[in-house]
């Protein structure tokens, strides 16, 4: 059994090593770490389920590994899922591949399948996909939009969880960007 700290640092290290564009300004190691931190807090406060922590961390650290540039890159979700596919055998534990893949593939979509809002509830899921993993990743990634000066405030309509909606734009959230 691995400790959470060891597991988190090993996933983070492996994801950064796998990253296609290490020179990225907005999608750097710092972004990966903030997204993982936010995702972990969303998981704990929204779902109180540590059993899927490793799945949430894998999704958070690998979600942008296939990104080629910092701006429009609509295929980066697909490429990031491919990067994870090539690295998954190096992870020292198993994880919910189907749910993590769903989360990574769809995290960069601009709208949902049943609504213009790209929130988890507006996507269809096949099989046994655990939508909580996607909700944690997607909300964490959106909470970190403030790293870009273009964003002054997070639009909570684009968040899936109640915890992320309550946390967004609070002094605690904004403190990450001072």
Characterise the protein shown here.
With 178 residues, this protein is mostly helical. It has a single domain, classed as Hypothetical protein af1432 (Orthogonal Bundle), CATH 1.10.3210.10. It is built from eight helices and no strands. The longest helix has 19 residues, at 29-47. The chain is globular. The N and C termini lie far apart (37 Å).
Major sheet description: none
The class by helix and strand makeup works out as: mainly alpha
- Helical fraction: 40-55%
Number of domains: 1
Envelope shape: globular
Average pLDDT for all residues: 89
**Measured distance between first and last alpha carbons:** 37 Å
Radius of gyration: 15 Å
Oligomer: single chain
**At CATH's second level, what is the architecture?**
Orthogonal Bundle
Give a nutshell description of this structure.
With 178 residues, this protein is mostly helical. The protein has helices at 4-18, 29-47, 53-62, 76-87, 97-106, 131-143, 162-167, 171-174.
Per-chain topology:
Elements (H helix, E strand, L loop, with lengths): L3 H15 L10 H19 L5 H10 L13 H12 L9 H10 L24 H13 L18 H6 L3 H4 L4
Keywords, separated by commas or semicolons:
single chain; 8 helices; about 50% helix; globular
């Amino acid at each position: 059994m691995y400790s959470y700290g060891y597991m988190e640092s090993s996933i983070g290290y492996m994801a950064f090593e796998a990253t296609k564009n290490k020179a990225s300004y907005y999608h750097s190691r710092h972004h990966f770490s903030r997204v993982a931190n936010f995702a972990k807090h969303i998981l704990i406060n929204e779902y109180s389920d540590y059993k899927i922590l490793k799945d949430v961390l894998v999704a958070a650290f690998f979600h942008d590994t296939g990104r080629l540039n910092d701006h429009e890159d609509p295929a980066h979700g697909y490429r990031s899922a491919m990067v994870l596919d090539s690295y998954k055998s190096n992870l020292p534990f198993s994880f919910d591949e189907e749910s993590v893949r769903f989360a990574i593939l769809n995290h960069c979509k601009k709208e949902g399948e049943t609504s213009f809002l790209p929130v988890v509830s507006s996507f269809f899921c096949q099989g046994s996909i655990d939508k909580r993993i996607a909700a944690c990743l997607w909300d964490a990634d959106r909470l970190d939009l403030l790293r870009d000066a273009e964003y002054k405030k997070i639009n909570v309509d684009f968040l899936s969880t109640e915890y992320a909606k309550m946390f967004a734009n609070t002094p605690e959230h904004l403190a990450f960007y001072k």
